[in-house]
Amino acid sequence: MLLKELLREIQVSRIEGDVDKPIDAIYYDSRRVTPGSLFFCIEGFRFDGHDFAVEAVSKGAHAVVLRKDVPLSQHVTKVFVEDTRLAMALMSRAFYGYPARDIPIIGVTGTNGKTTVTYLIKSILEEEGKKVGLIGTIANMIGSKMLPAERTTPESIDLQKLFKDMQDEGVDAIVMEVSSHSLSLKRVAGVEFEVGVFTNLTQDHLDFHHTLEEYREAKAKLFLQSRQAVINIDDETGRMFAERVQGQLWTYGISRTAQVFARDIEITSRGVSFQLFLPGESSMVSLNIPGLFSVYNALAAATACHALGVPVRHIKAGLEKVKGVPGRFELLNTGTEYSVIIDYAHTPDGLENVLKTARDFTKGRVITVFGCGGDRDPSKRPIMGEVAGKYSDFCVITSDNPRNEEPMAIIQQIIPGIEKTTCPYVVIEDRREAIAYALNHGRAGDVIILAGKGHETYQILKNNQVIHFDEREVVAELLGKEKI
User: Fold this and answer.
1) Is the separation of the CB atoms in 193 and 227 below 8 Å?
2) How many C-beta atoms surround the C-beta of residue 163 within 10 A?
3) Which of the pair, 53 or 215, is modelled with greater confidence?
4) What pLDDT, on a 0 to 100 scale, did the predictor assign at position 208?
5) Is 117 helix (H, G, I), strand (E, B) or coil?
């Protein structure tokens, strides 16, 4: 494809050089550049792509898209734009031939529930006979084929390449998590969503967005790109979004009047059942994931699929087919008299939902092992501590993904919150030792919650050092089992 063909949809400030050059590949990582490619200079949080333009050219890049000037060889074409991220998103879409133009895309955003909702939607659409692509935190999937996921929403080049792979494999629909980061950083710019879904909004990512209002406005951007909007009307931010939606609006909820809602809710340790009401029809649904939050997730998925015209029988069957989502209230088969549950909860609201659900069916004590991630919003740490103390009988405060912070410094910020409660606790910095302590002190009827890591199989330490750490494996080893 010629460079000039990639420039048709973008605002160009100026061009230096030939635009009739063929472009064989596109990159934002100079380490991957190949001869005949186009390189985007992206200004990141730790590195500035402009600093790597010379390296990209030395590896054979034909052209460079940049915001500020960089001295380069005269044979290289320079394309100057105001926003290299936006240019990359739109040019990536063109380079891969607009792969998702004719495939309905369902985007799910919100603080909590995104992963589970996407899995539920995928199951429902598959029940209808569709081949579904999934993009999210745990993994990317084409049908049943699993692909690794580096971030919740891929960078725009990677996203469009994934769309192309899905198109080539004949997917009928794509469901994806849409993070606030991806909306702010224009990773999904140019993506046309058939349905945008909003789950909820609570405090998170304030290290990036700075204020809750900024975080909220980032989420709102999804609905500017969505033909139909599915909104949790029980959520305050959801009600704000509902007033601003331009396209078709669908609402769901439990406590407020909504188009899609649940009644006769019964929650047990094994799951939840409820009467699902859709416009003009209803059905009894039994979900294999416990908790009131699971009802909300099911309502979000059901409403999205209803918006796509899926019959209620497929919605019911698809919801009931899901046995669980990795790292989301995942009950381990330990064979012990106490239960061990792994959950990704890493926000105050997410942790509260998990602990309240456990509290509802626990016959003994709720023991919570948790920490907070480093290089992330520090203001939520004491709040997490208070939530854990409020709903637990005992807590083990430990390390999560400390990244470039000292684990004990993070823990010290959690402690003031838990000390607002009467909950006893211990501090064990090493997460493996913390889990061992909890297991050794578990008694019949207790529920041990390992919160924060969920599906992750690693820990991130200083200088981005990543070590293998899978809590399923850790629990199995500590209990002397080969596998759980």
Assistant:
1) yes
2) 27
3) 53
4) 58
5) helix
Give SS3 for 24. Answer: coil
Residue type, 65: V
- What span, in angstroms and rounded, lies between the C-alpha atoms of 293 and 348? 14
H helix runs in 335-459, sequence order:
348-361, 381-391, 407-418, 431-440
Q: What is the pLDDT of residues 193-250, one digit of tens each?
A: 999 999 999 855 555 546 888 888 889 999 999 999 999 999 999 999 999 998 999 9
- Chain CA centroid to CA 405, Å: 23
CA distance 43 to 85: 8
Residues 289, 173: Cα–Cα separation, whole Å: 25
In 3-state terms, the chain is what percent helix, strand and coil (to 5)?
Answer: 35, 25, 40
Which among 38, 72, 95 is the end of a domain?
95
CATH number at 72 reads 3.40.1390.10
One domain for residues 273 and 138: yes
Where is the domain boundary, 40, 65, 95? 95
Structural domain boundaries enclosing 266: 105-321
Task: Give the tens place of pLDDT for each residue, 120-169.
Answer: 999 999 999 999 999 998 889 999 999 877 777 899 999 999 999 999 99
pTM, two decimals, is: 0.90
Phi, psi for 108 (deg, rounded to 5): -120, 125
Residue 276 in tokens: 């699902």
Total domains in the chain come to 3
